[in-house]
Amino acid sequence: MIYLKLLWSFIQIGLFSIGGGYATLPLIQNQVVVLNKWLTLTEFADLITIAEMTPGPIAINSATFVGIRIAGLPGALVATFGCVLPSVIIVLTLAYIYGKYKNLVIVQGVLSGLRPAVVAFITSAGISLFTLALWGEDFTASGIGGVNPVAVFLFVLALFILRKYKLNPLIVMFGTGIAGMIVYLV
Amino acid sequence: MKHGNSVYWKLFTSTFQLSAFTFGGGFVIVPLMKKKFVDKLKWINEQEILDITAIAQSSPGSIAVNAAILLGYRMAGIPGALVTILGTVLPPLTIISIISLFYTAFRDNIVVNAILKGMQAGIAAVIMDISLTMGGSILLAKRLLPVIMMIGAFIANYFFRISVVYIILICGVLGAGSMIYEHKDRGR
Question: What pLDDT was estimated at residue A138?
């Protein structure tokens, strides 16, 4: 039955996608293109493009996209449910443990070690996004001179507004989107 | 824990709004959560945001969904977690369902592409802002080990592309070790 197949495939994707984001792609490709042949490789490439252009986690986007193409809206719901299910069980267990034992010395120790690591991951993601926004996909090929002046201006302005006026990040993101629409289209 | 329908409603609307705007990967959720739940609603503090992100990153599944579960549970137990999952899943589910009907037209639309290109700069600024704030508070605490771990983890992740799983394991063990060592010292 197609619903059970979708469910089982996306439970596996949800369960084994540690690290999130692009680390999940080979896993999704294996389930969706190689094993079940639900999408062709071209359709899978389209899916990645769409996932990048829309909000939300790549795994959820894939689940919805594949589900709806294979079995309509019920398919999308089943695949998304499967994708989230392992997270729900595992993270709720961890949330319970965190709530109960977060004052223990060892748990405090582990968390105090993870905090600087998380800041490092955020910074790492930030620099990747920074080079993508200012230089495009081929940062190394275009060199420093290949920088997009519009993106530099928007970045500096956005960062200034965020640091100085503590404006809501949603408004800043939305604002640069509108500015982009005006500048790049006119 | 806070109860009452207003908490559930606020959890739902907040996570829905956050999820509708997590362009550019899961970490965008961190500055958005900080603004909403630390600065505005004052439900949790900055350290808890980092704990939530650390646990969300170390668990299977996407950071945004995992962080939403942790936040929902923290505020209103299992019902709270179910509400935040729904809030996080609904925007991508709805948007992709609609777009899948005409996805080639959407993919090639010049207006959509121009907006997204502009937003990239904004997203980069939002992430850099939170990393300056949080990295700054680690530097200002003037404790050597966290600073070394932060710089080491950054180099390992950004330059050597070492899997976050290993970095998390090493940092967790180092953190636990140093904390136990400090406590033994104090006990003497």
Answer: 67
Note whether A14 and A24 are same-domain residues. Answer: yes
Residue A51 sits in the same domain as residue A117: no
Residue A96 forms part of a structural domain? no
Containing domain of residue A128, as a range? 102-146
Final residue of a domain: which of A91, A112, A129? Answer: A91
User: Which residues of A, range 2-61, sit inside 8 Å of B by Cβ?
Assistant: 14-21, 23-24, 46, 49-50, 53-61
Residue A184 shares a structural domain with residue A124: no
* Residue B104's pLDDT band (cuts 50, 70, 90): confident
A41 and A111, same domain (yes or no): no
- A9-53 tens-digit pLDDT: 999 999 988 766 667 888 899 999 999 999 999 899 889 888 888
Q: Is B187 on the interface with A (CB under 8 A)?
A: no
Assembly ipTM: 0.87
Query: Residue B60 has what DSSP assignment?
Result: B
User: Would you call B120 and A129 a contact, using CB atoms and an 8 Å cutoff?
Assistant: yes
